Task: structure prediction
Amino acid sequence: MRIVVLAGGIGGARFLRGLKRAVPDADITVIGNTGDDIHLFGLKVCPDLDTVMYTLGGGINEEQGWGLTDETFRLKEELAAYGVGPEWFGLGDRDFATHIVRTQMLGAGYPLSAVTEALCDRWKPGVRLIPMTDDRVETHVAVTLPDSGSAAGPGERRAIHFQEYWVRLRASVPAEAVVPVGAEQAKPAPGVLEAIAEADVILFPPSNPVVSVGTILAVPGIREAIADAGVPVIGLSPIVGDAPVRGMADKVLAAVGVESTAPAVAEHYGSGLLDGWLVDTVDAGCVERVEAAGIRCRAVPLMMTDVDAAARMAREALTLAEEVRAV
Ligand code: GDP
Ligand code: CA
Result:
């Protein structure tokens, strides 16, 4: 079975670990979000690709959900001693090596997709991990900074990098707009459209619908290829009981005018894209609403408390795919 998964960071990676356990023989292609990518200390950092690679490759810091185990932070401390920041972005010494190798290879002219493949030669995630694009896409968030002390008066409107919004500000101010800068001109990376066309099933894991899956869908050609693939497209809600399970997805959903509920996210994707949607059992009351939107819906436990729980979710998604296929 050929499965294509559109993945962000933590939610995507943990789901993928369950999917691998549920169907060990499946041929899994992961299309990774690169809208979170950022240049720090002269290095290219791809947080979502690395979270998937480290989680599936057994190197992830489990508690954090990002970064590597057994980390030290000497390099960052030395940089800080020179007054070189930003200090708000956590990069461990072991993690730095990944970004150095990546930046070196990019500098030598390799596209990000080839670089990702080379990094995966070490981590062996057991899936084919492809960035959504080799082109530069950077998600920016429009915010009004409270009392920035500028002459502009109270509240200066600015567009900031998604990482600055998410990590430095912890989404503490409303996101007024979310823009995947560069997406319109970006091309899907080699292998992305082919994998979609050859897939037997396409899954949207419980990743952020705006800044993870939404950014991937913003690369021209990808949304169309999924809608036209003619195979079941099944999503799992990252919203449980009207709140994101982890993180602050509600903040970026508000920016695109979508309420933070499981059915609203399904409607946001729409029946043109989604054939099936899994909601958590606490949201069982919304199944009818989702089905009324033309999307087959089931309520099942959606908390990835461990790998087995994630594997059960993956099996439910594949069962729903078969139901959709049979219609
Ligand atoms: P990020 O790039 O690290 O933010 O990760 P993703 O975009 O892949 O996933 C983030 C989303 O995963 C958040 O909106 C969370 O609500 C969701 N999420 C995290 N853990 C769980 C879980 O156990 N169950 C469900 N249903 N969603 C989860
Ligand atoms: Ca991310």
Q: What stands out?
A: The chain has one domain: 1-327. The mean pLDDT is 96. The domain at 1-327 is CATH 3.40.50.10680 (Rossmann fold).
